[in-house]
Amino acid sequence: MTIAIKANRTRIRTRIAGPLLAAILLPLALMANGQAQAQAYPGKPIRVIVPFPPGGTTDATARAFTARLSPALGQPMVVDNRGGATGAIGVMAVTQAQPDGYTLLIGSDSSVILGPIIAEARTFDPVKDLVPISILAVAPMVMVAHPSVKANTVAEVVAQSKHGKPGMFYASIGNGSVFHFAGEQFNQMTGASLQHVPYKGASPAIADLLGGQVQFMFATIQSTLPYIKKGMLKAIAVTGTRRSSFLPNVPTLAESGLHGYNIDTWVGLFAPAKTPPEVVNRLGIEVNKLIKDPQFGALIHESILELRHQTPGEFHELVVHDQARYTEQYKRMQLAN
After folding, report:
1. How many Å apart are CA 169 and CA 205, to the nearest integer?
2. Which of 82, 124, 194, 258 is most buried by its number of CB atoms within 10 A?
3. pLDDT tens track for 187-240
4. CA–CA dist 251, 223 (Å, integer)
5. Euclidean distance between CA atoms 324 and 337, whole angstroms
6. Residues 136 and 287 sit within 8 Å (Cβ to Cβ)
7. Cα–Cα distance between 309 and 293 in angstroms, integer?
8. Going by C-beta distance under 8 Å and a sequence separation of 6 or more, which residues neighbour residue 226?
9. How confident is the model at residue 15 (pLDDT cuts 50, 70, 90)?
């Protein structure tokens, strides 16, 4: 009898201990597996899709980063330019790729955020279909004017506009671009009535601004700084939350009375949704190391860009925020028309 009771107790303990031990060991096994995957990644070349043709700011940023990230990751990073549909073709190629970390996106706010907002048929949702890894660089923007414009400050521009002064036009690189949104936000916040003139790219827009066919433009400092230095254009205000190191004497629009105005165009690194967190974290760590490298910072600074790092969580919050504010602004723009 005693032997039978002891045997039953042993079987009961075994039935209890087995599941309990599994419950303890399974998370440890999963953690170890995740760490192994992080250490093993990457095990083959990484394709980095840029949703624009070669030569632009996004492409130049992508090539500068991949050239330095590739040795750090121990694998080639191949830039694949997929231009078309204001960036939608390239972004969609990433959203439809396997979420294994071997297809990444380096895109801008125009392609990732604004593209789906202005598209008649939304083809992707940046919040649901992409995993933000980090902002890479910010291209600070500036409101510039032709030298013939007598206004030198935001207040003077607004006053002239409200008094019906003719010839108050601003150029942008196209409808729905971040530069178009910058001009419309300026109008909405000041009550000014600058008229939008869209162009097919920065070069023809700047050419007409230099020629006086249009009077203003919201553009990157990168594209306008040489003309500002030569006196061929004059800087009215920068659009970010702080003054630019490239134009330290030019006030921000917020300083000029437009409290809360903040628009800079950014370039960031993304992965497809459902990419393993350990892969996202590995990429984020390597990007952070690169951004903290003074030599690389100096190289990027020469391109009139500013390095900016965020954790994947912080970048996700920015994407959500930008999607909400640009969606609301686009609705107001449609109502105004």
Report:
1. 12
2. 194
3. 999 999 899 999 888 889 999 999 999 999 999 998 999 999 999 999 999 999
4. 19
5. 20
6. yes
7. 12
8. none
9. low
Residue whose pair of structure tokens reads 């070349």 in the numeric block: 45
**How large is the angle between the packed helices 202-211 and 221-229, nearest 10 degrees?**
30
Indicate if the pLDDT at residue 30 is higher than 50: no
Q: Is the pTM of this model over 0.85?
A: no
Q: What is the pLDDT of residue 29?
A: 46
Choose among 255, 226, 262, 245: nearest CA to 144. Answer: 226
- pLDDT category at 175 given cuts 50, 70, 90 is confident
Q: What is the largest CA-CA distance in the chain?
A: 109
Find residue 79's DSSP bridge partners.
48
Identify the band that residue 31 occupies on the pLDDT scale cut at 50, 70 and 90: very low
What share of the chain in percent tops pLDDT 90?
A: 65
3-state SS, one letter per residue, for the chain = CHHHHHHHHHHHHHHHHHHHHHHHHHHHHHHHHHHHHHHHCCCCCEEEEECCCCCCHHHHHHHHHHHHHHHHHCCCEEEEECCCHHHHHHHHHHHCCCCCCCEEEEEEHHHHHHHHHHCCCCCCCHHHHEEEEEEEEEECEEEEECCCCCCCCHHHHHHHHHCCCCCCEEEECCCCCHHHHHHHHHHHHHCCCCEEEECCCHHHHHHHHHHCCCCEEEEEHHHHHHHHHCCCCEEEEECCCCCCCCCCCCCECCCCCCCCCCCCEEEEEEEECCCCHHHHHHHHHHHHHHHCCHHHHHHHHHCCCEECCCCHHHHHHHHHHHHHHHHHHHHHHHHHC
> What are the C-alpha distances in Å from 259 to residues 194, 218, 256, 277?
19, 18, 8, 37
Amino acid at residue number 273: A
Residue 179's closest CA among 153, 198, 152, 207? 198
